[in-house]
Design goal:
about 100 residues, alpha/beta, four-stranded parallel beta sheet, globular
């Protein structure tokens, strides 16, 4: 029997500190972040997506960020497949830019 994974979702509107909270949760619970923001998957859109700078991520792994070129499409089915593959640690935090 496999262990049940613990997953927290940090959701809310823009600019309220979701990314910082996700990092703090991950530090406290030995977790990692799976990005669920539809635009933060794209490289080079850091400013317009308010992407958390590398130095503020405090060595917490952030998955599904900065891995596509802006002209590439990314479907929700691809996100589900990719995110499911990343859930390997006992604790993950998802964060969203807008709700």
């Amino acid at each position: 029997m496999s262990a049940i994974k613990k997953i927290a979702a940090v959701v809310g509107s823009s600019g309220i500190g979701k990314s910082k909270l996700a990092v703090e949760l991950c530090k406290a619970l030995t977790g990692q972040v799976i990005n669920a923001d539809a635009l933060q998957v794209y490289k080079g859109l850091d400013i317009i997506t308010n992407k958390m700078p590398m130095n503020e991520r405090e060595d917490i792994n952030h998955h599904l960020m900065d891995f596509l070129e802006p002209d590439e499409e990314y479907q929700v089915t691809s996100f589900l497949k990719d995110a499911s593959q990343k859930v390997m640690s006992p604790f993950f935090v998802f964060f969203y830019t807008n709700v």
